[in-house]
Design brief:
The structure holds two protein chains of two kinds.
Chain A (H helix, E strand, L loop, with lengths): L46 H12 L5 H8 L3 H13 L3 E8 L7 E9 L4 H9 L4 E8 L4 E7 L2 H11 L6 E6 L1 E8 L3 E2 L2
Antiparallel strand pairs in A: 2-4, 2-5, 3-4
Helix pairs in contact in A: 1-3, 2-3
Chain B lengths: L8 H12 L5 H8 L3 H13 L3 E8 L7 E9 L5 H9 L4 E8 L4 E7 L2 H11 L6 E15 L3 E2 L4
Antiparallel strand pairs in B: 2-4, 2-5, 3-4
Helix pairs in contact in B: 2-3
The chains are: A alpha+beta, B alpha+beta.
């Protein structure tokens, strides 16, 4: 499974880069692929699945009918395949909201140093905050890497020094603030 | 960035609904909200045209073996190089997030890797060769406690 992928299996790789999976045979087995188990709990994808996913990466609202037409399949096949992919939590088609269009002008990637409590516990408590959009337990200088969004600088200040800083186990915060976002395309996520 | 348009309660409801499952038909949303299919269609078109939302497939990162989110904190050779470095990083398909920042580094970039080797290769063979990159520090996000993939930036 690993050898075929390399880093093309990166989280977000954008555009035509399809899902990196062990598509060894790449056969067109109708409607079946997402059922076969790979041994690590996740189903295998074949070419048809990958093409459906690629179409939905470009446009999540494209009709099954149009995907089917492009791929020379019938609509029912596309519908069945997609349902299987979704049921198996392989893919989710969602609306992603632009931070600034939704009023969040401030995005702060913040390192958190934890003391006297496990990073996981502190992270879980921070994760409850709606304005915190990612929390990762990290290896490196800081114990947690989080991302905080806010509508105003005042709100950001309040979240950092008034809310997060006061969570039990948070020792120090190492904040940075995004000046200009050049790219933010989540394509891979824990589903 | 996106032109700011004002959003009302219905827009927010539609966005919220599509945040769970964006394959639902306009007619179905209309039925749920007791509105016509046409209303939903035109609202949705407005949201998409104004780049408030983008509807797309997200795939499960657990397909990767031990996915590690690598935060690359990049220092540029000079202040004048920062923008160019950020643009170069953003052009790499492996990288999903790039922003110029105040504080911890000049530019923050994020990528998902499966192991340390992959990261080292990427740092040495790709990142280090970008003109204007002086130094890269990194932190590795080992497990996702929270990752709200419904946020993005619709940058041109």
């Amino acid at each position: 499974m690993t050898s075929t992928r390399h880093r093309t299996g990166c989280w977000f790789s954008w555009g035509e880069v399809a899902l990196r999976t062990a598509t060894k045979a790449g056969k067109r087995t109708r409607g079946k692929a997402a059922n076969a188990n790979q041994g690590d709990g996740l189903p295998t994808l074949d070419d048809v699945d990958e093409q459906i996913i690629a179409a939905l990466r470009k446009n999540g609202r494209i009709a099954n009918r149009d995907i089917a037409r492009e791929m020379g399949l019938n609509e029912a096949t596309v519908r069945t395949r997609l349902r299987r992919l979704e049921d198996a939590s392989m893919v989710r088609v969602v609306a992603m909201r632009d931070l600034s269009a939704m009023g969040f002008g401030y995005l702060a990637p913040v390192g958190v140093q934890v003391k006297g409590r496990s990073a996981g516990d502190v992270g879980a408590e921070i994760a409850e905050l709606e304005r915190v959009i990612t929390v990762n337990v990290a290896i490196g200088t800081h114990d947690l890497e989080i991302q905080v969004v806010a509508e105003t600088l005042e709100e950001m200040q309040h979240l950092l020094t008034g809310v997060i800083a006061k969570i039990d186990g948070v020792e120090r915060l190492f904040p940075s603030l995004a000046l200009k976002v050049f790219k933010y395309n989540p394509e891979w996520a824990p589903l | 960035m996106s032109a700011r348009i004002s959003l009302d309660e219905l827009d927010h409801k539609i966005i919220e609904r599509l945040g769970h499952d964006a394959r639902v038909s306009n007619r179905e949303i209309g039925r749920e909200f007791d509105l016509t299919e046409g209303t939903i269609r035109s609202r949705l078109k407005r949201l998409l045209d104004n780049r408030v939302i983008r509807v797309a497939a997200v795939t499960n990162a657990n397909r990767l073996r031990n996915p590690i989110l690598a935060y690359l904190w990049v220092e540029a050779d000079s202040a004048a190089d920062i923008e160019k470095v950020a643009e170069s990083l953003a052009s790499l398909p492996e990288i999903g997030f790039v922003a110029t920042t105040l504080g911890r580094a000049d530019v923050l970039a994020m990528t998902l890797v499966e192991n340390g080797n992959e990261l080292t290769d990427f740092l040495h063979q790709t990142i280090d060769k970008i003109p204007g990159v002086r130094r890269v520090r990194y932190s590795l996000g080992q497990n996702f406690i929270k990752h709200d993939y419904r946020w993005c930036a619709l940058v041109d």
